[in-house]
Amino acid sequence: MGTMETAAQPALHKQKRRSFDAMEWLLYLFAIVMLILIVYPIYFIVIASFSDPAAVANGQMWVLPKGFTLDGYKELLNHSNIWIGYRNTLLYTVIGTIISLAINVSAAYALSRKDLVGRKSINIFFIFTMFFNGGLIPTFLTIRDFHLYDTFLVMVLPFSVAVFNIIVARTFFQSSIPGDLWEAAQLDGCGNLKYYVQIVLPLSKAILSVLALWTAVGYWNSYFNALIYLKDQDLYPLQLVLRNILITNQMQSSMGTGEAALIALRLANLMRYSVIIVSTLPIMCMYPFVQKYFNQGVMIGAVK
Q1: Is there a contact between 196 and 206 (Cβ–Cβ < 8 Å)?
Q2: Quick check: 86 and 100 in contact, CB under 8 A?
Q3: 41, 52, 99, 293: least CB-packed within 10 angstroms?
Q4: Which residues lie below 8 Å from residue 232, measured CB to CB, with a gap of 6+?
Q5: In this structure, how many other beta carbons lie within 10 angstroms of the beta carbon of residue 181?
Q6: Nearest Cα to 279, choosing from 248, 239, 225?
Q7: Cα–Cα distance between 174 and 183 in angstroms, integer?
Q8: Which pLDDT value is given to residue 147?
Q9: How far apart, in whole angstroms, are the C-alpha atoms of residue 120 and residue 111?
Q10: Residue 118 — φ and ψ, nearest 5°?
Q11: Contact call for residues 167 and 124 (beta carbons, < 8 A)
Q12: What pLDDT is attached to residue 2?
């Protein structure tokens, strides 16, 4: 009996192996299909920005650019205010991310400490603001009364607190920074501030990178706050500048007649795709540098 069981084991092992290989290939196939579904729209926008708008509209372009042209980029970059928008957005993103990280991470660390007086009440207060707020008009009146309207600070200061980021960072501190470390630091004469700056923050590179990426993308793509709280065009971010350029070109194409209208319409259609590339390429280039920490931070700092 033992001999028969021993002889049957290799066959059973081969059968399991074949089943596992089939499942593995199905997973690979599913991953490839999902990758194509995600990547192809981005690729399509890239090649459409270099193609003849007529070929794009008629569905004649699928894999390679058709009627290669750089007119959309040339027309877009000819607008001098686009460089002002780039400068402003870069400043808003860098300064806003630094301020937001300083506020949110510090609040998260304080809320992760069990010895914080009123910790539960403060947590409830923060969570309450995720679902209820005063609305646009009270916010506008508050910003105006604090003399932040139409200033640089209105883009980086009033909206720097992100409760979701605080919760993510708090969970990270609670699950990844052992309490014994604070007790050991106290024995060495380390105070709260020194412990936070010299011990906690260096151990939190993963979650800091994740929050920095989330915050930077939010600031880079932000346009609604600028639309509401800014009237000086020299303070406009890139997204609002690009929006105004598109609207202007579309109005010119609709108001013109004859060949001039056709040329304006062609440029407007070309710039639609060029605007997407110009506005997203810089922030996409940032991702590879934080990908390692991003994966770690998402796994460790996930909300439980």
Answers
A1: no
A2: no
A3: 41
A4: 150
A5: 14
A6: 239
A7: 15
A8: 92
A9: 9
A10: 75, 25
A11: no
A12: 47
